[in-house]
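Whiteboard transcription, Tuesday session. T.W. wrote the structure tokens on the left side:
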């Protein structure tokens, strides 16, 4: 549909439309437009313009630019646990602005587990980082572990804080660098594991798909979420004060990379190994018989708390 802006606001046509192939068009006169479509179209545009006036991203835009943008944009609602963007779902050419609710970015972390003489070593398949760990646990899916800590009010994004894990190895393990850690052992078995990592949480006022790295990631609604979708080409066309490039840099800076997530994943595994040994040592010193096991804890609680070890 085109030409509706001039009819609604009583202004000259903003563009000239030229056909490139044979076309069949439905033409509606102004009288028919006013009686049939005007109220519906104007209500949708007014709602979008109201949302744009509430977001600080569009403060530098004049009214005419917002009117033009409202004709190209749309709003959409998502239910909890519904995928908003990713896995061939959503509109990759649109920028999403959260106007209500919260959502999270979940990364599909692919790791190769290599067992060398009884010691499990881990390699990140979708990145260049290689780390080792002696943990014998296997986590099938990880959620709600890497939620952000500090609210970044400027862009509505809560920042993810990376743990200090400079000491990558514990116990009797030795650190080896590069690919040689996985090629020098004479006998080894390999398998691939997939872990779903909750990277960060996005709240009202946040935006995503501006151009930040979303490879192997998906955005999922955690509560009933309402988003404003604006074409990215229009966003970049009206890039006053270079704001959208700064937003993109902000997101890339505060959303962790796959290597950072993998480092934190290794840190978590080492801590679980330490916690498992500590609990076993404490239980071994107790003389009172205790038949209670971790299996008596509901599975939903174990999954939420990240408990995947057997203390029995």
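and on the right, the sequence the group agreed on:
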């Amino acid at each position: 549909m085109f030409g509706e802006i001039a009819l609604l606001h009583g202004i000259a046509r903003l563009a000239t439309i030229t056909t490139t192939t044979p076309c069949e068009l439905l033409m509606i006169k102004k009288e028919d437009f006013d009686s049939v479509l005007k109220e519906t179209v104007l209500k949708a545009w007014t709602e979008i313009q109201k949302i744009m006036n509430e977001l600080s991203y569009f403060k530098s835009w004049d009214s005419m630019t917002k009117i033009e943008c409202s004709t190209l944009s749309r709003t959409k609602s998502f239910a909890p646990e519904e995928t908003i963007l990713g896995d061939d779902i959503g509109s990759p050419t649109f920028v999403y602005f959260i106007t209500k609710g919260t959502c999270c970015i979940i990364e599909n972390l692919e790791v190769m587990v290599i067992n060398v003489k009884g010691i499990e070593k881990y390699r990140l398949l979708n990145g260049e980082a290689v780390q080792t760990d002696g943990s014998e646990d296997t986590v099938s899916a990880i959620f709600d572990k890497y939620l952000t800590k500090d609210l970044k009010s400027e862009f509505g994004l809560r920042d993810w804080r990376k743990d200090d894990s400079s000491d990558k190895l514990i116990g009797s393990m030795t650190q080896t660098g590069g690919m040689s850690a996985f090629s020098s052992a004479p006998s080894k078995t390999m398998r691939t594991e997939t872990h779903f990592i909750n990277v960060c949480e996005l709240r009202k006022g946040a935006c995503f798909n501006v151009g930040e790295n979303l490879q192997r990631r998906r955005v999922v609604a955690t509560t009933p979420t309402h988003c404003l979708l604006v074409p990215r080409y229009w966003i970049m066309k009206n890039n006053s004060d270079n704001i959208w490039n700064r937003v993109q840099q902000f997101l890339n800076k505060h959303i962790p990379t796959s290597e950072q997530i993998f480092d934190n994943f290794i840190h978590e595994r080492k801590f679980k190994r330490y916690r498992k040994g500590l609990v076993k040592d404490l239980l071994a010193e107790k003389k009172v018989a205790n038949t209670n096991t971790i299996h008596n804890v509901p599975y939903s609680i174990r999954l939420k708390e990240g408990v995947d070890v057997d203390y029995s």
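Someone added at the bottom: The longest helix spans residues 258-285.
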